[in-house]
Amino acid sequence: MNFRLAVVSAGTGDPSSTRLLADRAAERAAALASRHAHEVTVSVIELREISADISAALVSQLITPRLQQAIDVLRDADGIIAASPVYKAGPSGLFTSFFGVLDNDLLIAKPVVLAATAGTARHALVADDQMRPMFAYLRTMTLPTSLFAAPEDWSDPALAGRVDRAALELVLLMESGFARAIRDESWQSYQHEYGSAGGTELSIDLDTDLMRLATGGSAG
Q: pTM for this one?
């Protein structure tokens, strides 16, 4: 089976330690998947390259072709690695802005590896304390193992162990087909914002007393 893996990197440097951490996880996921007779196609979204497009979407709701291409990659992905540098004790504004402009239904049930990099180990809990709640709001399946790397971690074998663990969790969740099953069998059981489910939520009965009142009409 061929899995599609999306890597989202908010690193601003070239090279970027954030991108390096995400690439390590993607490479391990591909290697582990191959042992299970699967192939992994990796697509990378470099947020620094579409920063202006993200800003435009924030202030005007305009989705440019480049931003739409990134959204399409996430829509079609079987798994996601989301990596951000840490600024001011939190994920970068570029990272949170990108996920903030996405449709709330886009990532439902998709498995996500959370990854963060920083200049000090004091920020080691950012992925779990600040990134995980945002992805919970988007109703993704965040993996139990998150990744973090400060400068001293790159030479520590423990980082490789965490990357292996996260990659295995990702592969197993992609193999399970959980996200596809949700869309095929349980999509209607989710609460969707009006228009956010590609029209599938329009089966709601609008001709009721409650809905008429909600839209400014009168009951009866």
A: 0.87
